[in-house]
Write a structure and sequence with these properties.
The chain has 387 residues and is an alpha/beta fold. The chain has two domains: 199 residues, 3-Layer(aba) Sandwich (D-Maltodextrin-Binding Protein, domain 2), CATH 3.40.190.10; 134 residues, D-Maltodextrin-Binding Protein, domain 2 (3-Layer(aba) Sandwich). 33% of the residues lie in helices and 17% in strands. It is built from 14 helices and 15 strands. The strands form three sheets. Strands 1, 2, 3, 4, 7, 13, 14 and 15 form an eight-stranded mixed sheet that branches. Strands 10-9-11-8-12 form a five-stranded mixed sheet, covered by helices on one side. Helix 9 crosses helix 10. The chain is globular, with a radius of gyration of 20 Å. The protein starts with a helix and ends with a helix.
Length: 387
């Protein structure tokens, strides 16, 4: 935990004052040249598969053969980690969630894209084409990739019926097997998780008046932090590494946690007693955008990937493998490698119910203003450290 806290302390100090410089391809470029032979991408785990885990899920190898662009992937477990890596430089693309994308735009770490250079742009879901987490000043800073909810993952041996509330991981209680939840639940190792606690309190305590989990005044914020400090006493671990979390569910007695559908699918594949649910309070979620670095060294390969990322075969493969939803609606009609009804299973029709991640700002819809993300970061680090 000490190294994690040090890492996140460094993240707080990241600068957004660096001067932008477009390397080669700019937003007004009208033609893409020959690939540079390489592409360096920061991505969430499971987002760029080349068949190493399962030969049926490979949307990278074909791209490399077709374009000559060798894809190198650096996985990241939190949005803060992605921002930190982008600040260091050396990457062409990043699959950023909404709680990172605007920080990257403000920090001049990503550049606007020319949608005319991405022929499949017209196939992108109309709900996402002009989404505020990648559209600034009428310019698009990336291409939508996938979206989905943060689910409540649980052990079906402990829960014969699905839990109905996020209180399972926030409130001290005995679980259906008669044992306390203390030491058997987990929380996400990222400040954006504060929104999950706020979402829970929206229904648990309506008197707080929380209308948006990303817009909290001082009183609301204090109540959310109080809940998270209570949760700290129950938590087995704060997770960000999906492999570690899956091991904890298999071997460490963890039975409930917020998670991504990726872990649920992977554990089910291993025949583990795992299922997931979106509780009655709803769920936060992520809508991820593939963004082009301001100083991308391989912009031609990057633009080739942006187009490839929207191909139905790519969208379908990612959606079924990760447990997400495609940003190209017609992909829902394309047969998946595993033959599942991935759009139905992953909640494609529940888009309106999800409170998508975005970076909290001091300037918000509340007259008194809101607590900004810098406070979320420092306070969540303190909570994880027991303060």
């Amino acid at each position: 935990m000490t190294s994690t806290l040090v890492k996140k302390s460094l993240i707080i100090a990241f600068s957004t004052s660096l001067i932008a410089g477009i390397y080669t391809v700019q937003a007004d470029t009208t033609k893409i040249g020959q690939g540079e032979g390489q592409l360096d991408v920061i991505a969430w785990p499971g987002y760029l598969e080349r068949g190493e885990s399962d030969k049926n899920y490979d949307w990278v190898t074909g791209f490399e053969k077709e374009t000559g662009c060798k894809v190198n992937v650096k996985t990241a477990g939190t949005s803060d980690e992605m921002v930190s890596l982008m600040n260091k430089g050396g990457y062409d693309l990043v699959t950023a969630s909404g709680d990172a994308s605007l920080r990257l735009v403000a920090g001049k770490k990503v550049q606007p894209i020319n949608t005319a250079l991405v022929p499949s742009w017209s196939t992108v879901d109309s709900r996402l084409q002009n989404a505020p987490w990648h559209t600034v000043g009428g310019k698009h800073y990336g291409v939508p990739y996938q979206w989905g909810p943060n689910v409540l993952m649980y052990n079906t041996t402990t829960f014969k019926t699905a839990p109905t509330s996020w209180g399972t991981v926030f409130e001290p209680q005995n679980l259906p097997d008669g044992k306390p939840n203390k030491g058997r639940i987990q929380a996400y190792d990222g400040p954006i998780y504060i929104a999950d606690a706020a979402l829970y309190l929206m229904k648990k305590d309506p008197s707080l008046g929380i209308k948006d989990p990303y817009e909290l005044n001082e009183k609301q914020y204090a109540a959310v932090l109080k809940l998270l400090r209570q949760q700290k006493t129950l938590t087995h671990r704060y997770w960000h590494d999906v492999t570690v979390q899956m091991t904890d569910f298999k071997k460490e007695g963890v039975v409930a946690s917020g998670a991504w559908p990726y872990q649920v699918n992977a554990l089910k594949t291993e025949k583990q007693p795992i299922a997931s649910v979106i509780p009655t309070e709803g769920a936060t979620g992520w809508a991820d955008t593939t963004m082009l670095a301001t100083k991308a060294k391989h912009p031609n390969c990057a633009y080739k990937w942006l187009e490839h990322s929207l191909a139905p075969a790519t969208q379908v493969g990612v959606a079924e493998w990760f447990g997400s939803n495609p940003v190209v609606p017609t992909a829902c009609k394309t047969k998946a490698p595993g033959g599942s009804d991935f759009c139905g299973d992953n909640g494609f029709s529940r888009y309106a119910e999800i409170k998508f991640w975005r970076t909290p700002q001091a300037k918000c819809s509340l007259k008194e203003g809101c607590v900004p993300y810098s406070r979320w970061t420092s306070d969540y680090i303190a909570i994880m450290g027991g303060r």
